[in-house]
Design brief:
CATH superfamily of the largest domain: Aldolase class I
Largest sheet: 8 strands, parallel
Shape: globular
Number of domains: 2
């Protein structure tokens, strides 16, 4: 969830019941050098419990030192990203490139476990490509190396974000391991959440499905508690949430950078509403909090727009990349 899972957005998700939140992935090498931008990614709230920091890298010693720093900063877990398919990450041996080097991946996990007292977890994919039949052995190697939980994104590295998550592989990994397995991929509505839960996972990780709709976590809680599922919030309530997010982002990054971040985050709040395409275009021009306030005010009036102008583009929770 690079570029999306900042502290302000995580707080919004927790407001609606997200039980565990995770930072966007952080370079273990950059963390070793105390890179200022990297440290911003590790902003966490005192009220954020539990929260995990996600690292990427391929050098056991460097990851071990980074894990120590994560613990020192008060995180409750440290997660190793073996799922990112982006070439600039895999090209350096990190992310899903480690799927092709199980011994190195196991050494990384073991080194992190030895360096810290907090739980070490792993985020992985369902293999490198469709021909990769070693995914079960890989997951078992992560458990044997000391990982205390594994999140499995049901796509291969080759798929990136296309196609569909393979729930059969997730179920097979659940059955093969004794540690908790968390399912990830394509959980964008109640039906897909039920399908993921049917694999036997210990939990569900939601990424793209929560962009622009943090209230999805409240709906999931109701679903699995067999309670009435609350409806999506009104345009007025969405506008208030959008403002809350923008104010939080600016408090962390300052107004100039914060509004550039909001140019991306704001667009998801209009999905499925009449007049959404123009609202998304206007989001790309955000410069100040005042601009965002004006956009939020317009959001409250969307319900009165002619339904014939309903957003008909291809925008879908799956359209925004997540790591």
């Amino acid at each position: 969830m690079a570029g999306n899972t900042n502290l302000a957005y995580r707080r919004l998700c927790r407001k609606f019941g997200a039980e565990l939140t995770t930072t966007e992935m952080v370079s273990s090498m950059a963390l070793q050098h105390n890179d200022e931008k990297t440290l911003h990614y590790l902003a966490k709230g005192d009220d954020e419990t539990p929260v995990a920091a996600q690292l990427f890298g391929a050098e056991p010693e460097i990851l071990a030192e980074a894990a120590k720093k994560v613990e020192q900063r008060g995180f409750h877990m440290v997660d190793l990203n073996i799922g990112c398919p982006v070439p600039k990450i895999t090209g350096g041996g990190g992310g899903s490139a480690l799927l092709r080097e199980p011994e190195r991946a196991a050494a990384c996990v073991a080194a992190m476990c030895a360096a810290t007292t907090i739980p070490v977890t792993v985020k992985m994919r369902a293999g490198w490509d469709q021909q990769d039949d070693s995914v079960l052995q890989f997951a078992q190697a992560m458990e044997e190396a000391g990982a205390q939980a594994i999140t499995v994104h049901g796509r291969t590295r080759e798929q990136k974000y296309s196609g569909h998550a393979n729930l059969h592989i997730i179920r097979a990994i659940v059955e093969a391991l004794s540690i908790p397995v968390i399912g990830n991929g394509d959980v964008v509505d109640l039906e897909s959440a039920r399908a993921m839960a049917a694999t036997g996972v210990a939990g569900i990780a939601v990424g793209r499905g929560a962009l622009g709709r943090p209230w999805f976590f409240r709906q999931l809680h109701a679903l699995f508690a067999n309670d009435p599922v609350p409806p999506d919030p009104s345009e007025k309530d969405r506008a208030q949430l959008l403002l809350e997010l923008g104010q939080g982002v600016c408090a962390i990054y300052g107004e100039h950078r914060g509004m550039r971040i909001m140019r991306r985050l704001a667009t998801d709040f209009f999905r499925g509403l009449p007049g959404a395409p123009q609202m998304r275009r206007d989001s790309h021009a955000l410069e100040t909090l005042a601009d965002l306030e004006a956009l939020a005010t317009r959001l409250t009036t969307l319900a009165n727009i002619d339904p014939s102008r309903q957003d008909r583009d291809a925008c879908h929770p799956n359209s925004t990349p997540a790591l």
